[in-house]
Every structure is written in structure tokens, then in C-alpha cells.
């Protein structure tokens, strides 16, 4: 158990983890990590327009459809545990009890690293709120005085995955991850999100563009490693190293 490798994704809505870090999930699952994904909401109000256009649609029907899509996508990516908090969206809000529930999951998982949204997103404030909550929960999980007797959290890196309109969010990647070997799994997961079919090709193009950046920054024309698909991330905390 001491050698178990784990990671945690905190996703505002049911599809966010697929578009933005599905490759990282699949790649690390392939490497033996147990990746837990927390969906704070199903995105039933604000991110399910296609479903709402169907006759006779109700909130519960939309939530059920979104849950099914997320579960199918998680299976395609090799997610170890998909946890749905079902807190509603537009706006997403957490009570203190909801936050403590999140802290309990973080402590149980003991992730080597965490992933969530950009710090700023004026187009979808649920996203930046989710990262604010992730940082707060990470802090509480490290506190020895919170539920004494539980194993406290160490200091996992929080990586911010790429937002939808990158330049508008002030998001600047400092990590590129080659996901070429698991692209077929990410694409399969993307196609599970039938309620947002308009994003399938968009996020395929993002992965292609980031692969160009991966290759350029791994040596570029001087012999950079080839990559066809990649994802970008922004780290929140300094990384400590023994050599560069």
C-alpha cells in the first residue's frame, strides 16, 4: 500500500476532466496510478444545451444523462474512482460541510498530484471557483488540527489544466505532457460526451497544437522528441529539484 501511486482531479462539471486532462488521466492510469476524479456538479444547467433542446427534458433527466456520459468516459480513461458530489451548477457553491467532504476524499486518496481549473475564468466562474475550493481543501487537508487522527496531506502539486479560451484566462502553461500513446482513449472519452458534441474537434485541435509546443520545448528543430498529441498545464507551487 505504501507504494501505491495516486492522483486526484477536481472537475467543476461532469465533462471538464475529459476535455482538459483526459490524456493525463489515461497516461497515469497506464503507468499504474489510481486516479480519482471528483465532479462537483453534472453541469446540468449551464453545460447541457443540446439536451435541453430535446422535448420533455427535465433537470433530473439531464443530470442522469450527464452522469451516464461521465461514467462511460471515466471507464474509457481508466479512472479508478469517479465521485459525483451533485452540488448544482451556474452557480456552483459549496458549504463548509461540502468542503469537509472534499477534504475527506483528498486525505483518503493522498494524491501525488492534483489537477483543477485555471485561476481565472470570466466566461465560466464555476471553473475558477472550483480551483479556489481545491486550494482551500488542500490547505485544510494539510492541517493537523482538522480531524486529528486522520493522516494529513503532504504537499502535492496542483496543476491547472487548460481553459477553453486560454488567452482570456491569463493561463500560462509551464508543463507539456505527451499523450500520444493514450490519445485513442482520450478521443473515445471525448465522444462519450454526446451533450457537447460541438467540442469534440475543438479539443482535438488543442491536443495537436500542444504537441507542437511539446516538441518545440523538448529540443525543437535541434532534435526535439516527436509528439502528435499533448496537454498543457500550469503549476501553482514551486517544484523542488536536485538537478536541472
Notes on the structure:
Helices cover 41% and strands 14% of the residues. The protein has 244 residues and is of the alpha/beta class. Strands 3-2-1-4-5-7-6 form a seven-stranded mixed β-sheet, with helices on both faces. Helix 4 (96-109) crosses helix 5. The relative contact order is 0.17.
Poorly predicted spans: none
* SSE run: EHEHHEHEHEHEHHE
Number of strands: 7
How far apart, in Å, are the first and last alpha carbons?
31 Å
Q: Enumerate how many helices there are, as a single number.
A: 8
- Radius of gyration of CA atoms, rounded to a whole number: 18 Å
Reconstruct the topology from this structure.
Layout: E1 6-11, H1 16-30, E2 34-39, H2 49-52, H3 59-77, E3 81-84, H4 96-109, E4 113-116, H5 125-141, E5 157-161, H6 166-169, E6 175-178, H7 183-190, H8 200-217, E7 230-235
Parallel strand pairs: 1-2, 1-4, 2-3, 4-5
Antiparallel strand pairs: 5-7, 6-7
